[in-house]
Amino acid sequence: MQIFKSIVKALTPVTIRTVSAAEAKQLINGSRPPFILDVRQPNEFQSGHIPNAVLVPLNDLSSHLNKLPKDAEILTVCRSGARSAAAARLLAEQGFRVVNLRGGMMAWEGAGYTVKRGNSR
């Protein structure tokens, strides 16, 4: 039975929900804000990130899965949305509830939303 479940899981496509910057802002300001996961490199994060975002570079993500919340939706973020889409797929395959910011920080900043600079959240 376990083998059958593994095969079905492997063959079932993972669909990742994407949101615009405006939709992400609504989620963040909602009653159950998502965990904001920034998957860029440290220098990119320092140059500007969404307030309260947590940095885990994409290449380190698989070794940090145990540090991510299973009880909250995770909003994945990168510069343009490509790396965060890969992160979202990996997380969804591991059973996390995830949504990807379409257009990444370029869309966020382009919408005029608050950007935090430096290492702090």
Summarize the structure in words.
The chain is globular and about 50 Å long. It has 5 helices and 5 strands, in the order H-E-H-E-H-E-E-H-E-H. It is 36% helix and 14% strand.
Entry keywords:
single chain; about 120 residues; alpha/beta; Oxidized Rhodanese, domain 1; 5-stranded parallel beta sheet; about 35% helix; globular
Short description:
This protein has helices at 2-11, 21-29, 42-47, 82-93, 104-110, and strands spanning 17-19, 35-38, 54-55, 74-77, 98-101.
Spatial shape? globular
N-to-C span: 44 Å
Q: How would you name the CATH homologous superfamily?
A: Rhodanese-like domain
Helix share, percent: 25-40%
H/E element sequence: HEHEHEEHEH
What's the total helix number?
A: 5
Return residue spans where pLDDT drops below 50 for at least 5 consecutive residues: none
Q: How many E strands?
A: 5
Oligomer type: single chain
CATH topology: Oxidized Rhodanese, domain 1
Strand coverage percent = 5-15%
The rounded Rg comes to 15 Å
Estimated structural class: alpha/beta
CATH uppermost class: Alpha Beta
As for the number of domains, it is: 1
Across the major sheet, the strand order is: 1-5-4-2-3
**How does the major sheet shape up?**
5 strands, parallel
What is the mean predicted local confidence, pLDDT? 92
